[in-house]
Amino acid sequence: MILTVTLLFIVALPAVAKDGFYIGIDMLFNDISGDINAPENIESGNGLGLHGGYGLNQNLAIETGIWKTKHSNKYAGHAADLKAGTIDLKVNYPLVDSHIEPYILFGAGVYTIEQKGFSMEGKGGRAGIGMDIYLVPDISVNVGFTRSNVTFKHNSVDIDGRITTMNFGLTYHFI
Known about the structure:
Blueprint: H1 2-11, E1 20-33, E2 45-55, E3 60-72, E4 79-92, E5 100-115, E6 118-136, E7 139-154, E8 157-173
Antiparallel strand pairs: 1-2, 1-8, 2-3, 3-4, 4-5, 5-6, 6-7, 7-8
């Protein structure tokens, strides 16, 4: 596995931030913390997502995503699902003669936690960092880390939560 990743880095082409549309798939790992997960009974979970966006220029893109992760409940013996829809402004930092392109993103999301027929919805802001690694001009892999501060509503009461996400993705750029 390490040899494969090393070879990909060596043969990958220099990054060229794309103008235009792109679409991709993600594998996510989420941790839920804050008052929404007191006393920390919902464990970290994983799942899949889709993302797509439009590169406005070499440095800016607008990106949307949807995803779902499944989380075990330590005490209740049943799973919880975390679903989200997000929209972000992605700021790319193309490096000269490199196939690696770091980025930061800022945005917002709508989140739902479902557990045993019970559902809570929340909204909140997001911030993240990551990098796109171009394998060929129209395909890149992504590694990112995002933190979302979410306020969930339950019976008209605000409940604060934090969602920490690590994602790995594969993106196709329409060129």
